[in-house]
């Protein structure tokens, strides 16, 4: 059986290879990254980490972070069946891992197990230094610089992907363990990458008012600059007939949004200015919905500023707006 080299090989054969084609964001120094972002504020650090999924690099197991223990550090001792031992000595003895930061707080994972029919909660302490964060947090996704750096790996051109796949194949063939595993499965690596027929679409042209057009930047997959500097073909007369709904603490962001809209809108042919801000007591979905339904100004646009990227809250706001839509 002939096995062609493709991305799935990275999943199947990863334990036997030092090459990974899957885009990964290195986040082994969790607390350092989060501490820099939150300026060491313990409440903010916990807010960033609680709910995140981490993977321990010594056994590749994943854990959900349920809390952060700032009172316990790796130099403290823990009670085991064999006696008391510090976290530093435990990792050194069992995994040959040297913990460098002796004062870092510990992550807490709580798991429930049944013992003789009774549910018992077990608390596991994890040293951040030996953990990798999986996925991206909301703050990371909203950080333009991080997403821009990550795009270098997630948006590689075909030539770079081809080169990476060839390098992956070579690393597999150079590994005696990997080739032995393939032989035991009755599989054989293909000497070349499988060629398939494809079609490359040319970049689209962005048409603007008065018949002009500009090619979309294929490298950036974006046409923001074009729309900001040229008039749209047609636009609704919005003027000051729009509303921004936000919590009291986000009033500053709402006013900044209004100022930005007033500057950018006319430059691309959209008549929009002014607007009004409606503040609500909390960021609960119910408060947003109440503000939307009780708005007597009948605005053409309603903007809801939410403090995070939680999809559920956005969906609730959309559901409240749909019944108010009127055909123009």
Keywords:
328 residues; alpha/beta; 12 helices
Textual characterization of the structure:
Helices cover 36% and strands 20% of the residues. The protein has 328 residues and is α/β, with parallel strands linked by helices. The strands form 6 sheets. A 3-stranded antiparallel sheet has the order 3-2-9, with no helix packed on it. A 3-stranded antiparallel sheet has the order 4-7-8. The chain has a 3-stranded parallel sheet with strand order 14-13-15, with helices on both faces. α2 (30-38) packs across α3 (42-49) and α11 (285-293) runs parallel beside α12. The longest helix has 17 residues, at 158-174. The radius of gyration is 27 Å and the shape is flat.
Give the SSE map.
Layout: E1 2-3, H1 8-13, H2 30-38, H3 42-49, E2 53-56, E3 62-64, E4 67-69, E5 77-80, E6 83-86, H4 87-95, E7 106-115, E8 118-126, E9 131-133, H5 138-141, H6 144-154, H7 158-174, H8 176-185, E10 188-189, E11 205-207, E12 213-215, H9 224-229, E13 242-247, H10 251-267, E14 276-280, H11 285-293, E15 301-304, H12 311-321
Parallel strand pairs: 1-10, 13-14, 13-15
Antiparallel strand pairs: 2-3, 2-9, 4-7, 5-6, 7-8, 11-12
């Amino acid at each position: 059986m002939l096995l062609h080299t493709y991305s799935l090989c990275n999943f199947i054969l990863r334990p036997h290879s030092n090459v990974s084609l899957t885009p990964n964001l290195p986040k082994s120094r969790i607390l350092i990254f989060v501490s820099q972002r939150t300026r060491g504020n313990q409440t903010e650090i916990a807010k960033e980490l609680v709910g995140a999924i981490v993977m321990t690099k010594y056994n590749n197991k994943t854990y959900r972070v349920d809390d952060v223990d700032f009172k316990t550090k790796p130099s403290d001792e823990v009670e085991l069946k064999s006696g008391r031992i510090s976290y530093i000595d435990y990792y050194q003895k069992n995994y040959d891992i040297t913990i460098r930061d002796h004062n870092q707080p510990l992550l807490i994972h709580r798991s429930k197990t049944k013992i003789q029919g009774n549910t018992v909660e077990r608390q596991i302490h994890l040293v951040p230094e030996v953990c990798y964060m999986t996925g991206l947090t909301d703050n990371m996704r909203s950080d333009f610089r991080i997403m821009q750096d990550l795009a270098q790996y997630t948006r590689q051109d075909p030539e770079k992907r081809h080169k990476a796949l060839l390098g992956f194949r070579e690393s597999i063939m150079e590994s005696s363990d990997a080739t032995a595993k393939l032989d035991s499965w009755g599989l054989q690596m293909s000497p070349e990458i499988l060629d398939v027929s494809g079609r490359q679409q040319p970049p689209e042209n962005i048409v603007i008012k008065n018949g002009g057009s500009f090619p979309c930047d294929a490298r950036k997959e974006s046409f923001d600059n074009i729309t900001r500097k040229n008039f749209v073909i047609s636009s609704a007369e919005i003027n000051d007939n729009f509303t921004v709904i936000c919590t009291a603490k986000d009033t500053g962001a709402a006013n900044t949004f209004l100022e930005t809209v007033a500057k950018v809108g006319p430059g691309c042919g959209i008549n929009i200015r002014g607007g009004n801000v409606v503040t609500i007591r909390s960021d609960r979905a119910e408060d947003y919905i109440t503000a939307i339904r009780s708005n007597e100004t009948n605005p053409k646009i309603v903007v809801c500023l939410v403090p995070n990227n939680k999809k559920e809250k956005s969906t609730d706001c959309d559901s409240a707006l749909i019944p108010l839509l009127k055909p123009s």
